[in-house]
Design brief:
The chain has no helices and 11 strands. The chain is mostly beta strands and about 120 residues long.
């Protein structure tokens, strides 16, 4: 089965930087999307950034210009570089993997356990 393990969360001051990483173990196919979602208390989970197997990226409007998502295909790893962070970035960040071909597994979507990011002075 696919396992997603996140790292890099923690406490950071406003204006600072943080780098999240997520590594997928197991077969993920050649057509897939890896991304980051976040969920703050009292709010719905939202897509922060995603990157396809072809390295096309997508960002939520509030993080454009501040966050950058990238992949290390050889290591099945996705990174989220968070710069100029704001208190409203505080949330649990979840790594997500979508696999186009569901023939290997009985699902298309996989989630990490989440990592807490807190932006505070």
């Amino acid at each position: 089965q696919v396992q997603l393990v996140e790292s890099g969360g923690g406490l950071v001051q406003p204006g600072g930087s943080l780098r999240l990483s997520c590594t997928a173990s197991g077969y993920i196919g050649s057509i897939n999307v890896m991304g980051w979602y976040r969920q703050a208390p009292g709010k719905q989970r939202e897509l922060v950034a995603s990157i396809t197997s072809g390295d096309n990226t997508n960002y939520e409007d509030s993080v454009k210009g501040r966050f950058s998502v990238s992949r290390d295909h050889a290591r099945n790893t996705v990174h989220l570089q968070m710069n100029s962070v704001k208190p409203e970035d505080t949330a649990v960040y979840y790594c997500n993997l979508f696999i186009r071909d569901s023939s290997v597994y009985q699902r298309n979507t996989f989630w990490g356990q989440g990592t807490q990011v807190t932006v505070s002075s």
